[in-house]
Amino acid sequence: MASPEIQTPTAGSLDPEQRLVNGDDDVSPIEQVRLTVSNTDDPNQPVWTFRMWFLGLLSCALLSFLNQFFYYRTEPLVITQITVQVATLPIGRFMAAVLPKTQYQISIPCLGPKMFSLNPGPFNMKEHVLITIFANAGSAFGNGSAYAVGIVNIIKAFYKRNISFFAAWLLIVTTQVLGYGWAGLLRKYVVEPAHMWWPSTLVQVSLFRYVTLAHFNFLYVSNF
């Protein structure tokens, strides 16, 4: 007589509280993070899409120009990435509705032929997040104008010295990407661990998840 087979529950089948008790590294010990941030991923969602690159680069350039333009006012006006996060959602869904879904075969050096489409599917949260990251870089991470622009202004206005465009551009870009460089070097310690949480980003994550779930719930209800 065969003995009954006992199946042990997998980590994915347990609720977050039980996974936390079992010491799962993917579950945050902070309750606010567990309620806000999802620890699951859908690898089938397209990321590097035409919509993402178009809206992301446009948002970065537009916010960089507007914040620098208003920087010289007595009362500077700062346009943050929240504006882009809200504004690009209907634009992205509009592009998903009107762009052609035709697939094209393109040849990429060292990668061979690849299939490309202007509209690979519905506008998803990954595209939305990357567009907001582009916009955040354009708004100097919420500070408005790039930090090193003040150095260039001081050199020209107070010291009456000339600085070439290439030197000024290199100084500004270096200071802007310095944060990304440190984040990449310390990713193992400040980004990947579940117990490292950043309260200021929870609001944006909540907004990303809300608009995505609300949209899919609307589509589900409208089908009945």
Overview of the molecule:
There is one protein chain. β1 (103-108) and β2 (112-117) form a beta hairpin. The protein has a two-stranded antiparallel ribbon with strand order 1-2. The radius of gyration is 23 Å and the shape is globular. It contains nine helices and two strands. α3 packs antiparallel against α4 and α4 crosses α5 (125-138). By secondary structure, it is mainly alpha-helical.
Task: Present the secondary structure layout.
Layout lengths: L15 H6 L9 H6 L13 H22 L9 H18 L4 E6 L3 E6 L7 H14 L10 H9 L7 H21 L1 H4 L8 H24 L2
Antiparallel strand pairs: 1-2
N- and C-termini, Cα separation: 50 Å
* Helix vs. strand class: mainly alpha
Instruction: Name the poorly predicted regions.
Output: 1-13
The number of distinct helices, counting runs of at least 4 residues, comes to: 9
Q: How much β-strand is present in the residues?
A: 5-15%
Which value, in Å, is the CA radius of gyration?
A: 23 Å
Largest sheet: 2 strands, antiparallel
Shape: globular
Binned, the helix content reads 55-70%
